[in-house]
């Protein structure tokens, strides 16, 4: 029997002992699984809510699995590689990863200011909307169909690309990749916007202000006695 399946069966048995009835258990599980990441919500806030729902080691595992449903695939793989056992561990890794993405966007923006204007147009959703409008205006095509076909082709090309890069079986299913891909495409514009409006970056417990051209100035915090 699969080790993950055995662990899940043991968790279900523990929950049955705790709740006393299958109906009460299912009611709790449905409430637990309905908690997904909202638009603009930080991973830390989602993790805090999930931890407030669970109160045992068995439920901690379920909380971690529920958290994985609301993050991109690459973040989930990163957490699994670090062998995260708790939601707090996963949130710490995810926040560091998201901060690194934001700082990289800030650096690229300061060195090549043209990305402020052109980068949003390189995203799947933005290009899909523009293509749908253009095809509808020029050829009287149905815009929604054009948009869906555009997203499907983009998704398939991304999947082929990651298969080529991995050079073998992927450590996740096609459905997990689809969910992660959608979350990435929807949330990445937020990363770009944060990088444009916040010039501060953090490196080895020091804060720096990023200037145009890629130069930085260290920010010294005021010390109080």
TrEMBL record:
State the protein's name: Ceramide glucosyltransferase
Q: Name one GO cellular component term.
A: membrane
* Keywords assigned by UniProt, alphabetized: Glycosyltransferase, Membrane, Transferase, Transmembrane, Transmembrane helix
Location (main, coarse): membrane
EC number(s) for this protein?
2.4.1.80
- State a single Gene Ontology molecular function: ceramide glucosyltransferase activity
- Localization terms from the record: Membrane
